[in-house]
Amino acid sequence: MNVIFVWRGPSPYRVDFFNELGKFCNLTVMFEMKPQDISDKNQSWFNERYINFKAIYLKGQRVFGSVWFCYDVFNYVKDMKKADILVLGMYSTMTQILLSLYLRIRRIKYILNSDGGFIKQERLLCRLFKHFLISGANAYLSSSKGTNKYLKFYGARGPIGIYPFTSAFESEIEQNSNVSDKIGLKKKLGIVESIVVLFTGQFIHRKGIDILLKSCKGLSSDCGVYIVGGYPTAEYIALVDQLKLCNIHFIPFKTPKELQDYYGAADIYVLPTREDIWGLVINEAMSYGLPVITTNNCLAGLELIEDGKNGYIVETDNIEQLSKCINELILDKDLRIRMGENNKLKMRGYTIEKMALSHIDFFKKILKKTGDIDG
């Protein structure tokens, strides 16, 4: 089976997935951007170990200011036409918007991937344009039931294949779930508090770090809040001073390997995001057996968290509700353990191996339906 993906850039979890998928097909991935072209990510975050697939970097440049466009993508249309399966990773980059229009004109079938999305109040013209772009695909790859709803709202008519979106291999899930020496890891990291509330991610407004800080007023001195991923903004520093918070620790960017110790040492994970169309940090925290608190604007939370069973879903920007849930978990160790065990069980179904196999199974169904392969 010859498969081509058009993708934005070599994020580490996608490269791991492509390497796994490449064990079952002849895979080519066309990347729009090299790591050095993507300024909002630390360069050490990327993964360029292309083992089981062929990687092609398209030639791109910025046009109209900040818009990135790969002007040579159309040179590969002949290869795309010959592929058994062609997948566009998204519909929101200039390159893939124009490519999708060209494919429709040439009547070349393609699958559109969507890691997630939320239906919003928006201008009619924006909605119609989005409907036009999404409805043009012949089939869809989706991360969740919520993503299915989103795709159908914007005109998806073809078959939809759901995959377990994740960033970890089966062996990593197993290793993470067996981490038990929290005291030793706390000592290794210089953590003096007995209970750790953890956040990992970019220090940007959308992630809701300001809401987390406001919800931590009055926490006991034996609970430390570790916010990992960058350097505090002036707003965050001012909030810490204003609220007289003495248990907040800002930790610079850490590589995925370095983050393992923080997940292992933590007792509670919080992602107070204002919007995440998925949120793979939720998967990661769950694999370590952490109870998770996130918002109703985090698709991973809505898909993976059963409120009260393995974590909590709170309203976006609701400081009181977030504070209540954090304190409830701080005070109830048995509840933390019970939720954590439920999360370990849940994550056994979310591995890169299963993600790759779900793709292959869907590709076979598509090809069988169109008569391009037998069996």
Describe the structure.
This protein has helices at residues 12-21, 77-82, 94-105, 124-135, 145-153, 170-177, 182-189, 209-215, 234-242, 256-265, 280-287, 299-304, 319-331, 333-347, 352-370; strands at 2-7, 26-31, 54-57, 60-63, 67-70, 85-88, 111-114, 139-142, 160-162, 195-200, 223-228, 248-251, 268-271, 292-295, 311-314. It has 375 residues and is an alpha/beta fold. The protein folds into two domains: 2-166 and 351-370, Glycogen Phosphorylase B (Rossmann fold), CATH 3.40.50; 173-347, Rossmann fold, CATH 3.40.50.2000. It has a seven-stranded parallel beta sheet, with helices on both faces. A six-stranded parallel beta sheet has the order 12-11-10-13-14-15, sandwiched between helices. Helix 8 (209-215) crosses helix 13 (319-331). A hairpin with a 3-residue loop joins strand 4 and strand 5. The model has no long low-confidence stretch (mean pLDDT 93).
